[in-house]
Amino acid sequence: MRDHVRPLPSYLVSRFHGWQATTYTENKGWYRRLADEGQRPRAMIIACCDSRVHVSSIFGADSGEFFSHRNIANLVPPYTPDGDHHGTSAAVEYAVTSLKVAHLIVLGHSQCGGVHGCHEMCTGHAPELEEKTSFVGTWLDLLRPAYEAVKDLPEDKQIEALEKQGVVTSLANLMTFPFVKDAIEAGTMTLHGLWHDIGAGSLEQFNPATGAFEVV
Amino acid sequence: MRDHVRPLPSYLVSRFHGWQATTYTENKGWYRRLADEGQRPRAMIIACCDSRVHVSSIFGADSGEFFSHRNIANLVPPYTPDGDHHGTSAAVEYAVTSLKVAHLIVLGHSQCGGVHGCHEMCTGHAPELEEKTSFVGTWLDLLRPAYEAVKDLPEDKQIEALEKQGVVTSLANLMTFPFVKDAIEAGTMTLHGLWHDIGAGSLEQFNPATGAFEVV
Amino acid sequence: MRDHVRPLPSYLVSRFHGWQATTYTENKGWYRRLADEGQRPRAMIIACCDSRVHVSSIFGADSGEFFSHRNIANLVPPYTPDGDHHGTSAAVEYAVTSLKVAHLIVLGHSQCGGVHGCHEMCTGHAPELEEKTSFVGTWLDLLRPAYEAVKDLPEDKQIEALEKQGVVTSLANLMTFPFVKDAIEAGTMTLHGLWHDIGAGSLEQFNPATGAFEVV
Amino acid sequence: MRDHVRPLPSYLVSRFHGWQATTYTENKGWYRRLADEGQRPRAMIIACCDSRVHVSSIFGADSGEFFSHRNIANLVPPYTPDGDHHGTSAAVEYAVTSLKVAHLIVLGHSQCGGVHGCHEMCTGHAPELEEKTSFVGTWLDLLRPAYEAVKDLPEDKQIEALEKQGVVTSLANLMTFPFVKDAIEAGTMTLHGLWHDIGAGSLEQFNPATGAFEVV
User: Fold this and answer.
1) What is the DSSP letter of D208?
2) pLDDT at B4
3) Which residue of A39, A205, B127, D90 has the smallest Cβ count within 10 Å?
4) pLDDT tens-digit profile of D54-105?
5) D39-215 CATH
6) Is the pLDDT of residue B198 over 70?
7) Could you tell me which SUPFAM superfamilies the record lists for this protein (chains A, B, C, D) (predicted)?
8) Which residue from D75, D142, A24 is spatially nearest to B199, judged by alpha carbons?
């Protein structure tokens, strides 16, 4: 450990000090209340780790607004209470049962490297991801069922369709969690499925009535 | 599904349209390049889902800078290539082997609900978290080993100490991943351990030489 | 040559070794990637050579962020493809057509010696700069047209006004380059005009709607 | 103009405000003196525009230390007092005759896109740069004479050799300026030739006695 952990790069130190002297100073009262009274986020967002998905920016959100879980390809596994470590399921459980968020949002995006990797696996082009030791490949197995819904599309439409179908699959998996179902049926929480086009700067949402994504 | 998925709340629609008309418009060229050429983030940050941890804000980061994984209590499990779905390990693997990030940063924080829950478990006050069906409890088992290092401290110091010890444990677990170890030994990546005090607006970093966290 | 080129002064050697042992070591992975994969700067900044204009500092920028051209008085000449050596035009061409930067920023500043010299020329106080053999005077001829816009102001306002008018002139000249115009019209690049007050530590930006510089 | 010039991207605004509240505030007295009394830089540095050449960082330099001219490939043309606009010559003239810098430093670097382009021209692989309308190509003509010194080296050594030979050529061209020669002969200024390896983080300096670059 002694040899591996290093001081923070100085450009981040400078920027942090800048934040401390401006944003923090101007919002100190609120940040102290958030610390003292605990968070009370209105929504949970499940988004991709991708550096180009800037959730708080696109929704103008400040500290305290979104409980954010980010994993590769914004996937939610089905309900599997087997005693293993399930980071995503734990985050959903905490948001729904402890924080009682009012909205549970799954946010997919264009040019998703994870979705692309899954497509490669499903079309037989990524044997390295299919090895049992590949954490990425094993994780993306969660998205495989969604490939069924897109495999007959023209090839150049499949990736974007799979990005969107992944959101739909995650929404469906969320419904397998008893506490999610209960909150929805009690009318205390709503589900939302989004897809963000990074280059075009647009946002589409899943319309369950039509089964399509529509521009917001 | 038809009855469960709803349109995005209008306050988020409004804000998104505001972002689209301002930030997106002013940065369109850059966002398009990020879409066309792919991301090249300099660092991966592993942070908590907590809504009060505003990573991009405190580091003045814009789209494309940080690959962000967020889970409850910013935990990294030890290397366990057992073929199960490991969201955190998959994110680390992707960041290190595909994106080749230069810095891997674990960011803990004060008033962490997850760490508090683990402390409750360890002191016998949270039987509900110890049930096998609790995803939160099972996830927080990953933090249990860190409790050993703090259990003899005065009680009112234990929570903060456990938040920090959680970061140290995650750093140690990261070193059990062969690809993390390889990147560090090759000199292409560095590890960093941080703890952010939400109310005080301060930042501390782990100094492996002293074993303590020091103000940045 | 043998007698003219000397070893680097030791104070710079010491500082370089300090940088190498700290900043370089902490960021080695990133610097190697920048070397191996090439730069991908988000913005080009055209600033003055003046030692008091510390571009990377005021914008918290690290290696790889800004493509920087610096000349006396941050001037851009009009488009003149006459086969002569045009260092500024070459830098702009490279940034726009090869690097495809998303932002092109002209940064003027207070107490600019070059702008002061041009003002002296325009008011007949600097015959030595008007000699054909003066590189400084000939270079500052590029700023002369801007004097028209400030010559009727009270004398003590003229210098600062000329510094700002120089930025506006450079922005207008940039628009005479076909590749700049194309990138702007394609929506892949934006222009920005700034003026930095060195003593006050403030920054103003040109608002084309009002024709004035406004505090950022 | 109205439609082309835009507000500064908000990530730069935030960072600037951070700088203002920290670095500026802490150094206000010095910055005000620099504004009131004028700059007095010890050295002029002629470096490349490349975003990876972070001059102030590698030399630990703060505001007021270096008069910086940056152009593509850090080139200095020979003395040509023909009444045309010569940005580089103007910057050198101002530094030497007005600011009376004590050191004049030419800093080359590895992976230089400009030098690479010149090598492509010299080996007949870049007809587009040889067109009279290419500002980059015309600018790089200044480096062509240096190709003679490297063309018989093994091909994989030529680029780095040309980067270094470019520095030597610029140093020789500097000596053709009467005011440079005068200052050197009067013993009030020294010349220095450097080459920085971006990936390795090393620095070499030209030793005129051996004609080679040696590690600093």
Assistant:
1) T
2) 86
3) B127
4) 999 999 999 999 999 999 999 999 999 998 999 999 999 999 999 999 999 9
5) 3.40.1050.10
6) yes
7) beta-carbonic anhydrase, cab
8) A24
**Exposed, middle or buried by CB within 10 Å (0-12, 13-18, 19+), for A99?**
buried
Average pLDDT, chain B: 96
Domain ranges in chain B?
1-38, 39-215
Q: Which residues contact D166 (CB under 8 A, 6 or more apart)?
A: D73, D74, D75, D108, D112, D115, D118, D143, D146
* Cβ atoms within 10 Å of C3's Cβ, excluding its own: 9
Between CA D78 and CA D74 the distance in angstroms is: 13
- The number of beta carbons lying within 10 Å of the beta carbon of residue A211 is 11
Chain B residue with Cα closest to D11:
B62
Mutant choice from A10, A16, A19, A62 vs D, greatest count of D C-beta within 10 A: A19
Cβ distance A138 to B83 less than 8 Å, yes or no, reads yes
Instruction: Give dist(CA C214, CA C191) in Å, integer.
Output: 16
C 133-192 residues with CB < 8 A to D? 133-136, 138-142, 168, 171-172, 175, 184, 190-192
Sort A60 into a burial class: Cβ within 10 Å, 0-12 / 13-18 / 19+.
middle
Residue C28, token pair as written in the block: 């080695």
Distance of alpha carbon A8 from alpha carbon B191, whole angstroms: 9
What is the side-by-side order of every strand in the sheet holding A103-109?
A212-215, A202-207, A190-197, A103-109, A43-48, A66-71, B66-71, B43-48, B103-109, B190-197, B202-207, B212-215
Q: Cβ(B78)–Cβ(B176) under 8 Å?
A: yes
Phi-psi region of A124 (alpha: psi -120 to 50; beta: other; left: phi over 0): left
| Residue C9 forms contact with B (CB below 8 Å) | no
Backbone φ and ψ of A41, nearest 5°: -70, 145
Question: How many C-alpha atoms does C159 have within 13 Å on its Cβ side?
Answer: 12
